[in-house]
Amino acid sequence: MNQDILNSGFIPEVICEQLPGGFEDIELLAEELPKVLANEQITDRVSKLEIEKDISKLSLSELERAMLLYSYIGHAYMWGKSKVENVIPIQISKTWYEISQKLDRPPILSYASYALNNWKIADPDKPFDVENISIMQNFLGGVDEDWFIMIHVAIEYEAKEILSNLKSYFLEKNLDQSYLLKALDSIRKINSIMNRMPEKCDPFIYYNRVRPYIFGWKNNPATPDGVIYEGVDAYNGKSQLFRGETGAQSSIVPALDALLGVTHSNDPLREYLDEMRLYMPKEHRELLNGLDEWSNNERTKLNINEESVEIINELIKEVHTFRDKHLEYARVYIYEQSLTNNSNSNIVGTGGTPFMKYLDKHLQETVPAND
Ligand code: HEM
């Protein structure tokens, strides 16, 4: 496994802001997406796109941007019309599929596109801060949609502190408490960022204007048989079932679980979380699989003194606090909204899980291994 990722966290070092020549029609449609969606012009606009693009010369960061743009346009096409169709037209499907093969994850909007590769610093002369993040691509746009993503990005940005310090302590076996104390400081910062979600993301707006566009086609009553990617030979005309975008595709929490020795007994959410790794960038997926193996085989061999065990338990308590707040958000932003709204009232997450029960179970399991 490439442990070095833990030094910099899961945000890519280079984020492409514009594709090179040849992709002008895609860039333009993506930029105009909020208005195209408001005017219900998505079908017409997609039909005018060039059928297939040459992606052979794109760098990794350009491929990520291409994946982001095709994913936004693909989801706008699926969920931005009054009547849902189960065919993605060839103008989107062919190139989207080609890019997905190069990036080794399915042709669907994933967290890596929605959050990790979708921001820049608003004012480069000012330090990083939640308010200094500028989200590049939107569906409808607006402060609630931006803020929902900004909170995720700010958490990912801070996470490099906790991840790099836990790497030094556990993986490099520098069993010095200072690393754990720095990690504790970092997870507390993460929790204070998490607490800020309601400041500018309103539950009603999230439920009705943000969330509808990020659903996938698996376990979704709107697409019971999945979706056909027109003209993609490898799929042979067969419908595909892929999960939607969700924070469960962030690598932070699974990495923390593995490093801190938190385990979850089998349940549908755990199976789903394992499946979520297929939607993560390949290096993140490989790192998490390597960390799990380390956690199962090497972690208990470490000679950790009692004082350090206490700090590790404090760290686990903070992950518990994170999951507790997260469960509150799942309740307030989705469950309670579903009781008062007629729209998209199926009570599964955007990733497609019956989440309330299992998020709570994972919260209860976030306890020290020897408890
Ligand atoms: C309004 C805010 C949020 C809501 C309503 C929400 C909702 C959900 C839901 C419903 C799930 C279950 C899986 C699914 O079907 O999608 C989930 C999973 C998850 N989300 Fe969020 N989420 C929010 C914010 C965040 C943030 C800011 C993060 C930070 C990266 C995050 C990280 C996760 C993780 C790690 C899981 C997997 C569950 C676990 O390991 O305990 N979420 N989320």
Features:
single chain, 371 residues, mainly alpha, Methane Monooxygenase Hydroxylase, Chain G, domain 1, two-stranded antiparallel sheet, binds protoporphyrin IX containing FE
Describe the protein's architecture and organization:
A two-stranded parallel ribbon has the order 1-4. Strands 2-3 form a two-stranded antiparallel ribbon. α8 (143-171) runs antiparallel to α9 and α8 runs parallel beside α12 (252-260). It is globular, with a radius of gyration of 21 Å. The protein is 54% helix and 3% strand. The model has no long low-confidence stretch (mean pLDDT 94). It contains 16 helices and four strands. The protein has helices spanning 5-8, 24-31, 33-38, 42-47, 60-79, 90-103, 111-116, 143-171, 177-194, 197-200, 203-210, 252-260, 268-276, 282-297, 306-340, 355-364, and strands spanning 87-88, 119-121, 133-135, 228-229. The chain has 371 residues and is an all-alpha fold. It starts with a helix and ends in a 7-residue tail after the last helix. The chain has a single domain (5-364), classed as Methane Monooxygenase Hydroxylase, Chain G, domain 1. The chain binds protoporphyrin IX containing FE (HEM). Protoporphyrin IX containing FE (HEM) binds at residues 151-152, 155, 194, 197, 206, 246-248, 250, 252-253, 273, 323, 326, 329-330, 333-334, 349-353, 355, 359, 362. Protoporphyrin IX containing FE (HEM) binds next to α8, α12, α15 and α16.
